[in-house]
Write a structure and sequence with these properties.
449 residues, 5-stranded mixed beta sheet, elongated, alpha+beta
């Protein structure tokens, strides 16, 4: 990338969280010089929307040596040939069907015409008759019939081939037009996610089977949207209801700790309860933010990711951190359209995650800019080694490295889940990869304005 500090990881195995499309991008470890190793979002393995890890190498069945040829390979070739019709698109299959039916009808018509013409020629030129030309030459009725039939057959076959080719081409366009509503259904289904279930196909046209399919799909989307909305409302309402007693508990504990006559034992218990209450409050705030980020965006304004990152880093510098970490800024302009508050939470969660899961004396790199036509923010941190197979699980709620659904003093376990939901709401992509020497590199790409 020219003019941007956002860099990509080289030599790493990219891992895609559950909401990302195929491919991955990550940051280059510090100390490496040279240009970026390639465009972000390089194609990966697996269909869009699925979790996948790009791997290398080959696998062989037990007792089979790579490169060995034999009867099994020929059987596989025959099996592939038999499955060719199943791999053809519906448009191509309809075109072949239209063409085959046209040629079949043409051959049948040619055969009937051949019989009729022969009958006519037999009645016009009965056996034993002929034609004598002025120059004295004579041609029999059999020769006349044979000559007429050969010329008719040759020219009819040529005409059938020419018209048949035109019919196949027209059949292709007719099939394409007939299947265009299905293409619209497919495109809508590909765009849909948990935060875009409000979209509908709304197909106009005659009340045929395709419109019935589109209406059924819209009804299913309506039910799914209602279910997700009900779930988000429940999480939001429950979180709001839990905030009040937690706030009351915090106030009572703080007031009790200010009493000079409180014993040391009670003071220790009060501080422990206060810390536990603070963790629960962070959990509730995280649930509220997660519920909000999973809704459709109601605010869309231009936001420069460099300004957002600078604000987040300024706030982080003012807070007391659990360990001593050096933060490096590499910020250039990258403007996207979205909710500035959610974008600030996105960057804040990435930075907090990089600091909390780091070692004393560790380092964090925060980069923003434009990469491969996307506004990009990238956070890279040192720390413990993260296995590639664990990365995809870190984006699930309450999942932590080497600790499944266990309470942790480092956070509520919702940071990367919120990042994923905010990115999804902004129609972006998030990629993660383990960093050489330990740590993690997370790259978020959002559409430019």
């Amino acid at each position: 990338m020219d003019g941007s500090p956002v860099r990509e990881q080289q030599g790493e195995t990219p891992v895609r969280p559950s909401v990302t499309p195929p491919g991955a991008a990550a940051g280059r470890p510090p100390g490496q010089d040279g240009p970026s190793g390639g465009p972000a979002g390089a194609p990966g393995a697996g269909p869009s929307g699925q979790v996948g890890v790009v791997t290398t190498g080959s696998f062989a069945m037990p007792g089979e040596r790579p490169g060995e040829r034999g009867d099994g390979e020929r059987a596989s070739l025959l099996s592939d040939l038999r499955t060719v019709p199943n791999r053809m698109s519906v448009r191509l299959r309809l075109t072949v069907l239209y063409g085959a039916l046209f040629f079949l009808a043409g051959v049948l018509l040619l055969f009937v015409t051949y019989l009729l013409l022969r009958s006519v020629l037999d009645s016009v030129f009965p056996a034993g008759t002929g034609i004598r030309y002025p120059n004295g030459s004579y041609i029999t009725s059999e020769e006349i019939r044979d000559l007429a039939m050969r010329r008719m057959l040759t020219r009819s076959v040529l005409a059938l081939l020419g018209v048949g080719i035109i019919a196949v081409v027209m059949g292709y366009f007719v099939a394409d037009r007939a299947l265009s509503p299905l293409q619209r259904v497919t495109q809508t289904a590909r765009r849909l996610s948990e935060s875009t279930l409000h979209e509908r196909i709304a197909l106009d046209g005659p009340e045929d089977e395709i419109k019935e399919l589109a209406d059924t799909f819209d009804a299913m989307l309506e039910r799914l949207s209602d279910a997700f909305d009900a779930q988000r409302r429940f999480v939001g309402n429950a979180s709001h209801e839990l905030r009040t007693p937690l706030a009351i508990n915090r106030t009572l504990l703080e007031v009790a700790l200010t009493d000079p006559e409180v014993s040391d034992d009670l003071r220790t218990v009060g501080r422990t309860l206060l810390a536990n209450n603070a963790r629960h409050e962070r959990l509730i705030e995280g649930l509220l933010l997660l519920a909000r980020s999973e809704r459709e965006l109601t605010t869309r304004t231009p936001a420069d990711l460099s300004e957002v990152a600078a604000t987040v880093l300024t706030n982080v510098a003012r807070r007391e951190q659990p360990n001593e970490v050096t933060v490096h800024r590499e910020l250039t302009t990258g403007t996207t359209v979205g909710d500035p508050v959610l974008l600030e939470h996105l960057v804040s969660n990435l930075v907090d995650n990089a600091i909390k899961h780091n070692a004393d004396g560790g380092e964090v790199w925060v980069r923003t800019g434009v990469l491969s036509g996307y506004a990009t923010v990238q956070v890279e941190n040192t720390g413990p080694v993260v296995p590639a197979y664990e990365i995809e699980r870190l984006f699930e709620p309450f999942r932590r490295l080497n600790a499944d659904r266990l309470e942790s003093a480092k956070g509520a376990g919702l940071g990367l889940s919120i990042v994923r939901s905010v990115v999804l709401a902004h129609r972006g992509r998030v990629y993660a990869a383990p960093r050489q020497g330990g740590g993690l590199v997370i790259t978020v790409r959002l559409p430019l304005t």
